[in-house]
């Protein structure tokens, strides 16, 4: 029994290689190599034998070795800023799905806004010989970009990109969705609308704040300086923003947030303060990450489709000469927005709720 166990162990540990496949298929090693690398001139009958042997043996081709032979890694890189923000995993999923469709794998790097981690991401991309990099973050240093572009590696950015060859830009129409959000609050009767912005070092956060200011000016609303709080696109930043806004002499009746994570933090802080959403304060986020639909109440938010961004990014990497893509945003109305407390509409709604309560 012991001898048989040792023999079985040695057999299981024997490493499968291209020679084993060639022997099992009854073909040359060169033929197996051509089949694995999908050289079209291989005889279909021989190719069938090779694939049958691969399946029977459970052989997994060495993709890195194939890349050295073919000169193509079939690998695309994605650099993101914050893996803990649910928007980015959703974006990565969309990117990977699209990449698989066109025969590519994905290498992911998360920087957490740290320069050293960013350097490591770029180094890994170069070492693995990626065929393109989607830079889904902001503030990447120019020398790091130069390391990628000097190797002729196509890159794609969101919103803002250096003007270099083989670098594409995906533009997001922040204005449309934020304008819809402001008008939605105005129609409900809100006049004291506050905004919890993102970090000023991020171009996207600055653009969202500018879109909010433009939308309020358009309908004649004046937003006091104190009604704009500069957060950091985290739940904790949303909590700090609410603490600041609730301390104002005139408390806002509605709060817009620069992203959904900020809005989730704001929800927590408002509940902790004993306030009801939307009965006391209406709340709107930005991104439409999946979890917002399951918050209590479900969050009204501006949808920026990570799937659309991902599909555009893959397309741009495969064809850098294509014209720039634009991703639309739009308001998704759920249950975190309502008429301001104390208005005539609110009083009518409250009276209706009381009548229904008495009947029940």
Q: What does this protein look like?
A:
By secondary structure, the protein is an alpha/beta fold. Helices cover 48% and strands 16% of the residues. The protein has 3 domains: 16-61, Orthogonal Bundle (434 Repressor (Amino-terminal Domain)); 75-173, Rossmann fold (3-Layer(aba) Sandwich), CATH 3.40.50.2300; 176-304 and 329-346, 3-Layer(aba) Sandwich (Rossmann fold). Strand 6, helix 10 (203-218) and strand 7 form a beta-alpha-beta unit. It is elongated. It starts with a helix and ends with a helix.
Q: How does CATH name the architecture of the largest domain?
A: 3-Layer(aba) Sandwich
Structural class: alpha/beta
Number of strands: 11
* Contiguous runs where pLDDT drops below 50 for at least 5 residues: 1-13
Task: Work out the strand percent.
Answer: 15-25%
Straight-line distance between termini:
76 Å
Mean pLDDT: 85
What is the domain tally?
3
Shape: elongated
What is the fourth-level CATH superfamily of the largest domain?
Answer: Response regulator
Question: Helical residue percent?
Answer: 40-55%
In short:
The chain is an alpha/beta fold. The chain has helices at residues 2-13, 18-25, 29-36, 44-57, 63-70, 87-101, 115-127, 142-149, 174-188, 203-218, 235-246, 260-272, 306-318, 344-359; strands spanning 75-80, 105-110, 133-136, 155-158, 167-173, 193-197, 228-230, 254-257, 282-287, 300-304, 325-332.
């Amino acid at each position: 029994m012991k001898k048989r166990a040792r023999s079985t162990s040695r057999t299981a540990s024997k490493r499968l290689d291209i020679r084993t496949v060639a022997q099992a298929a009854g073909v040359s090693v060169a033929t197996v190599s051509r089949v694995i690398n999908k050289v079209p001139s291989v005889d279909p009958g021989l190719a069938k034998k090779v694939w049958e042997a691969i399946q029977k043996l459970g052989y997994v081709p060495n993709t890195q070795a194939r890349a050295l032979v073919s000169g193509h890694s079939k690998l695309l890189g994605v650099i993101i800023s914050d893996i803990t923000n649910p928007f980015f995993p959703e974006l990565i999923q969309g990117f990977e799905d699209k990449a698989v469709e066109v025969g590519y794998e994905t290498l992911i790097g998360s920087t957490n806004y740290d320069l050293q981690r960013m350097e490591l991401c770029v180094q890994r991309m170069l070492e693995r010989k990626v065929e393109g990099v989607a830079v889904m973050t902001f503030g990447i240093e120019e020398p790091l970009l130069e390391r990628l572009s000097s190797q002729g590696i196509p890159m794609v950015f969101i919103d803002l990109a250096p003007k270099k060859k083989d670098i594409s830009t995906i533009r997001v129409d922040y204005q449309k969705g934020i304008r819809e959000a402001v008008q939605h609050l105005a129609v409900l009767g809100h006049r004291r609308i506050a905004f919890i912005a993102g970090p000023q070092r991020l171009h996207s956060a600055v653009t969202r704040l500018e879109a909010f200011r433009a939308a309020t000016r358009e309908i004649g609303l004046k937003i006091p300086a104190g009604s704009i709080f500069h957060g950091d696109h985290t739940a904790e930043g949303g909590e700090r923003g609410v603490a600041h806004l609730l301390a104002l002499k005139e408390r806002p009746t509605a709060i817009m947030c620069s992203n959904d994570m900020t809005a989730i933090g704001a929800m927590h802080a408002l509940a902790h303060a004993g306030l009801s959403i939307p009965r006391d304060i209406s709340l709107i986020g930005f991104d439409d990450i999946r979890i917002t639909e399951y918050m209590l109440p479900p969050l009204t938010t501006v949808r920026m489709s990570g799937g659309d961004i991902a599909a555009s990014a893959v397309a741009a990497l495969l064809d850098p000469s294509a014209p720039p893509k634009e991703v639309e945003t739009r308001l998704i109305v759920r249950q975190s927005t309502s008429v301001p407390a104390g208005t005539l509409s609110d009083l009518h709604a409250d009276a209706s709720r009381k009548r229904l309560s008495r009947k029940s």
